[in-house]
Model the fold of this input.
Amino acid sequence: MNIILTGASSGVGFEAALEFSLRTENHIVCIARSADKLRKLLEIAKGINPDCNLLPVEFDIVNDDYAALNPFLTERLGHVDILINNAGALINKAFKDTSAQDFAEMLQSNVLGHFNMIKNVLPLMKNGSHIVNIGSMGGFQGSVKFPGLSAYSSSKAALHTLTECLAFELAETGIKVNCLALGSAQTEMLEQAFPGYQSPVMAFEMGKYIADFAKTGHKFFNGKIIPVAVTTP
Ligand SMILES: NC(=O)c1ccc[n+]([C@@H]2O[C@H](COP(=O)([O-])OP(=O)(O)OC[C@H]3O[C@@H](n4cnc5c(N)ncnc54)[C@H](OP(=O)(O)O)[C@@H]3O)[C@@H](O)[C@H]2O)c1
Done:
């Protein structure tokens, strides 16, 4: 399978990349901004499966030039079976301290970056391809809300709605779009959102779940926001 995974340099994205790299037939473009962390990912993946086809790509989904990325994707993958929009950022601030710039930053990292990526990758997708957006229970309608996360959660809610709209609009193409609204997994971002909280779900467990869902979920779901949470948060 040909896979593009953003936010692969840490947390659940890093673990999902390792899960995909177990199978040599998977070609995985792993995107993030941190070259050093991506090098480490490749090193670990090669240690587990020396023949894996993991391609680290240092790229900022918000600010970098897609005109430079597209020829690389076309040449190395040709077509794309799975796009996982997992990159994300979080600002934890009381609403009264949240600036318009903070809010805009959340929308850029958690929505606009994915909008950019989807627009550029869509021409490489075909009937049977799957777009998986990584959302959050914080942005899930009716879920318990927490102080400090208004900008982050609002951005995730926007990503959830984008998922529904896109699934509807792409229905005739056979490209499926779903969103996993994660509860919690033990990562740097979780520590930022809920300092000291210990999640019952390890990053590698969530990474494996995301990879498995991306491979098979489109056979059962389209346009769905699926809560992936055993606890709150
Ligand atoms: N962990 C949880 O409990 C939890 C709960 C709900 C939702 N989520 C969601 O799950 C996803 C993964 O989170 P995580 O917990 O694994 O967080 P993480 O460890 O902080 O990972 C975030 C990843 O996104 C990348 N990234 C951020 N901005 C980027 C940009 N502009 N361009 C390219 N890459 C970018 C980061 O890499 P660089 O810094 O190297 O670019 C990093 O690889 C996020 O979308 C998050 O909102 C997580």
